[in-house]
Amino acid sequence: MKIIKTIAISTFIAATSLLCDAREFQDWSNFRRYHDSNTEVKALPAAERQVVFLGNSITDNWARFRPDFFKQNGYIGRGISGQTTYQFLSRFREDVINLGPRIVVINAATNDVAENTHPYVEDMTVDNISSLIELAQANGITPVLTTTLPAASFGWRKEITGSSDKIASLNKRLEALAKKKGILFVDYYSRLVSPGDETRALNPAYTNDGVHPTEAGYAVMESIIHPVLQDLLAK
């Protein structure tokens, strides 16, 4: 009887694990992450949801580590750890358009370069970001595009090489894209890259792992983006 019970419990645990994995696979874009929060945000006065920050873990951590910056300025964080521009596209309506912001700040592509979901193809990443911009503009939302942050390597994808060159090349393409689309392009990269470092890593003064900013790094980013947004909102 004990053996039967043990087998039954093991089978149940295995089945539950498989079900969780299946649900995770089915929600590839992670719509559930902000499902409840989005309902709450839609009910806020317009002044409290004027800007949405779309991004990956860099944006996700920013909203968690520095919540006052977001709350006090009517900024909404919609970052999801590990995501690529492919996933941004699929959740853009749910996590940006439907919230009715005036502005969306797009910080993207770290995980594209890290090949989290797809082999990295610069043209495809640029096309994805171009589509995000077009979706925003078609819905009366002002897009603000930012540089991809410096990263010389990825701790979770050590086999990826040449990331500094890829990011530098991508940022040139993004600047040209912003100019073509007639939108603002905000440069975090120049202030956050390690000075005089040939590897073009994220400045160790602003990171603990070479990819994600610390609070000091976020303070620098805030000093760059906040005046830009306030100028736009004043128009």
From TrEMBL:
InterPro entries: Ester_Hydrolysis_Enzymes, SGNH_hydro, SGNH_hydro_sf
SUPFAM superfamilies per the UniProt record, alphabetical: SGNH hydrolase
Annotated keywords: Nucleotidyltransferase, Transferase
UniProt GO MF annotations: nucleotidyltransferase activity; phosphatidylcholine lysophospholipase activity
Family matches, as Gene3D superfamilies: SGNH hydrolase
Domain of life, source organism: Bacteria
Pfam families xrefs: Lipase_GDSL_2 (PF13472)
Keyword field contains Nucleotidyltransferase: yes
Record-annotated SGNH hydrolase-type esterase domain positions: 53-220
Protein name stated in the entry: Acylneuraminate cytidylyltransferase
